[in-house]
Amino acid sequence: xxxxxxxxxxxxxxxxxxxxxxxxxxxxxxxxxxxxxxxxxxxxxxxxxxxxxxxxxxxxxxxxxxxxxxxxxxxxxxxxxxxxxxxxxxxxxxxxxxxxxxxxxxxxxxxxxxxxxxxxxxxxxxxxxxxxxx
Length: 134
Description:
77% of the residues lie in helices and 0% in strands. The chain is built from 6 helices and no strands.
C-alpha cells in the first residue's frame, strides 16, 4: 500500500470497485486528460499537451484491452475501432498542433461516458454474517 493516505484511498477504491465503475473512472480520466491537453494547447504548453495526450492515449489503450469480444463481438469490434480512431486523432492533434482533433475526441468520449453513466450497477450483495448476527 502507498504511504500517502490519498493514494492509499484511491488504490483501495480501485481494488474494490465494480467493473462498470472502473470503466466510468477511465472515461472520466480520459475526458480530464483531453481537457488538460486542450488547455495546454491554448496556452502553448507543448510539454503539458504532450503529457495530457499521452495520458489520454494510455487510457484509451486500457479501455481497448478491457474489451471482451466473446460476449458481444460486434460491439467490441466497433468500440476497438473507435478507440483506435480516437488515439490516432489525439496523436494527430499533438503532431499537427491542432485543437480540432482534441475537441472531436472530447465529444466522442463525453458521449461514451454518458452512455456508461446510464448502465445500472447491481447492488452489492449484503454480507451474510451481518444479516444473521444476533
